[in-house]
């Protein structure tokens, strides 16, 4: 069958996989190939056990794979045979040299640019899907301009705004699609080609365009604003705990102001995920680079409050459990950085486990989807850690439960049954405010919500 467009995506991760599956699903007339340097990941994408858990993803992959969606390790062939290339490789925080701990590590990105240059035999549209520091497209263009023949490249910025756990829904019905391009004849034509792809299912008024630098920057700023809301509400949760105010009531009252809005105001044990911290630190680094030190400090405080919130959680456990956790069994309900994903990157649970082990506590971890990643994250960490799928079994004999992920399954557990098997006094630290605190208190637990008065039996 002859396809209308041949699309390649380099990078088969949390963004590349679902995004391309959605394009293939919505556009049967296009052939979509996803390539990756990691053969295990590609094998998993080609199996019944996809490398990431995302509600609704299995269905759209099953409907398209082998028809117009293909996963492969042949990067060279992919670049040669496709005219539209999305680049969705990872852009983690740099861990070495100048900018270590702050700047984006662009080595995977640059390697990809050089591969595109090396293997291209015809002109291409190259689309930045990864989240990148503003002006990265310039570097991409500079590398691609070393073309020896008549091959030319147009670089577009098309950042991805999906959230994990709701990726399929977000991709199917995005708030907006943002496309940044150069204001040249070929830049504008390339942009139109990309608009045409999304217009297969996204209403035109939601497809917005901008200059390429605004597009790159908007992605990082969106994440910074979202994270800032969480740090704002978490900062106030600390004040609530001192004043008997209730953070849920405060966030409801504040969020009903239509200028503020109600979303992203849930106090928690802190935000996790692979992107918020990385992207804010990247923003901080950019500001420092341009000598905007006050602006850099402002944004860095969002990350500092997030760290403070996690440390506060630990200190609360320590002080309320007689200032010693040594030898106590603590059960973590949830290890994923949020519900409906198995992803544990930058999950507060990693830091909390590390700190609890330093206090010589024994940790029992339960999570419906993230135990495999949790085991990998904790490899080499010293101390007693075990992994138990069933939350009832996990809590048996424990002194405390710490709720770290807002999985629905934890909302409706039989807490009486759990209480009966625990060591007394039994405590619950609800880092997500998802359970019925009063009911658990009535059962006999000491209950420590986030940003609300504790309910304790003296
Ligand atoms: P990921 O680590 O899950 O996937 C990246 C993939 O790229 C990996 O499988 C890796 O093997 C592959 N890769 C790296 N170098 C390669 C190369 N030279 N050739 C081929 N493959 C290569 O990362 P992710 O979570 O999908 O994120 C990708 C980008 O998207 C990042 O910039 C991130 O900030 C951004 N983003 C992520 C999310 C999210 O929810 N995870 C949402 C929006 C944007
Ligand atoms: C976030 C953004 O929401 C996406 O738009 C963006 O594309 C993505 O980052 C990215 O660039 O990677 P994601 O990290 O997958 O998506 O998930 P979120 O729903 O944003 O949650 C992030 C963290 O904040 C989680 O740990 C979550 O539990 C926490 N959170 C969220 C709160 O603590 N309180 C809230 O009110 C909302």
Q: What's the main sheet like?
A: 6 strands, parallel
- Strand share of the residues? 5-15%
Shape: elongated
Radius of gyration from CA coordinates: 24 Å
Q: What structural keywords apply?
A:
single chain, 14% strand, six-stranded parallel β-sheet, alpha/beta, 18 helices, 458 residues, binds uridine-5'-diphosphate-glucuronic acid
Description of the molecule:
The chain has 458 residues and is an alpha/beta fold. 43% of the residues lie in helices and 14% in strands. The chain is built from 18 helices and 14 strands. The chain has helices at residues 16-26, 39-45, 57-64, 75-81, 107-119, 136-144, 167-172, 185-198, 212-243, 247-255, 276-289, 293-320, 348-358, 371-377, 391-395, 408-411, 415-421, 437-443, and strands at 5-10, 30-35, 69-72, 84-87, 124-128, 153-157, 177-181, 207-211, 329-333, 362-366, 385-387, 400-403, 427-430, 446-448. The chain has a 6-stranded parallel beta sheet with strand order 3-2-1-4-5-6, sandwiched between helices. Strands 11-10-9-12-13-14 form a 6-stranded parallel beta sheet, with helices on both faces. Helix 12 packs across helix 13. The longest helix is centred in the middle third of the chain and has 32 residues, at 212-243. It is elongated, with a radius of gyration of 24 Å. The model has no long low-confidence stretch (mean pLDDT 96). The site of nicotinamide-adenine-dinucleotide has 27 residues, from helix 5.
